[in-house]
Amino acid sequence: MSVTEPRNRYQGRSLPRPDDELVDQGLGFDLGTLLSRRRMLTALGLGAVTVGLAACSSGTTSSAAATTSEGEIPDETAGPYPGDGSNGPNALADSGIVRSDIRSSFGTGSAVAQGVPMTLELTITDLANGGIPFAGTAVYVWHCDRDGNYSMYADGLEGENYLRGVQIADASGLVRFTSIVPACYSGRWPHIHFEVYPDQASITDSANAIATSQVALPEDTCTAVYATTGYESSVRTLSQVTLDSDNVFGDDGGVSQLATVTGDVTSGFTVALTAPVDTRTEPSGGSAPAGGGGGAPPGGGQGGPPARN
């Protein structure tokens, strides 16, 4: 005959928070549970057992959840050219921003970005729910063109909005964009910006973003692309920066933001990255860097925008 424990106890131990779920009892309780299991396994003759003790960031985070939280995509600045309304123009308020092919401008713009074709695939996962696909999230992507310029900001491109777009994550958490490989401009490793919003209705206010980060492109891909016509200036700028010296990816060499790439310069490249998002943490990215105004990149585009963008 089994005996049901009182609601405020588990395996003979009092619950610190009897009204909360078992996984939300705090670090101290989690550690005690794990140690009790270790002692039980040892008593059964199973020898030393290595148990992963998660480093919980707060008393309300479970050990299992904290383990996955360590893989959250790093928060990064949106830079001075986000086009999300936080620093000047807002493409996210315009009809037509939800699209998969971002090579051309929409609305009143008419320019089309030229360059080596790139398919960008981002898979958004939900760490707050065990790392399942984060279906339904709205992902805003933007990056510079092959001259190092950002639409909506650079001289002569104020009325253009190419290389900007939003897609809604499918059941597998995937969004896919058709674009071109961006340039490498002075002071930055080649990269792609993105923001994640809870849903499409949230995108008109950048404060609703639940994650802001960047994708780093592998060096061999960039080297191959920059050897083609139109990317000549990127050959020099790429030689002047590394992932470790970059002031965004340099914290860890871009280990969790470095994309996996397949393809070639003739057929185009597919750039893929999984971006785990944890809605239990407070987003710290997204703001423009100090002194990063909304003007055109220095040097007419070839010098690129200021650092940390």
Automatic annotation (TrEMBL):
<feature type="region of interest" description="Disordered">
    <location>
        <begin position="61"/>
        <end position="94"/>
    </location>
</feature>
<dbReference type="Pfam" id="PF00775">
    <property type="entry name" value="Dioxygenase_C"/>
</dbReference>
<dbReference type="InterPro" id="IPR006311">
    <property type="entry name" value="TAT_signal"/>
</dbReference>
<feature type="compositionally biased region" description="Gly residues">
    <location>
        <begin position="288"/>
        <end position="309"/>
    </location>
</feature>
<feature type="region of interest" description="Disordered">
    <location>
        <begin position="1"/>
        <end position="23"/>
    </location>
</feature>
<dbReference type="InterPro" id="IPR015889">
    <property type="entry name" value="Intradiol_dOase_core"/>
</dbReference>
<keyword id="KW-0223">Dioxygenase</keyword>
<dbReference type="GO" id="GO:0051213">
    <property type="term" value="F:dioxygenase activity"/>
</dbReference>
<feature type="domain" description="Intradiol ring-cleavage dioxygenases">
    <location>
        <begin position="114"/>
        <end position="187"/>
    </location>
</feature>
<dbReference type="InterPro" id="IPR000627">
    <property type="entry name" value="Intradiol_dOase_C"/>
</dbReference>
<feature type="region of interest" description="Disordered">
    <location>
        <begin position="275"/>
        <end position="309"/>
    </location>
</feature>
<protein>
    <submittedName>
        <fullName>Intradiol ring-cleavage dioxygenase</fullName>
    </submittedName>
</protein>
<keyword id="KW-0560">Oxidoreductase</keyword>
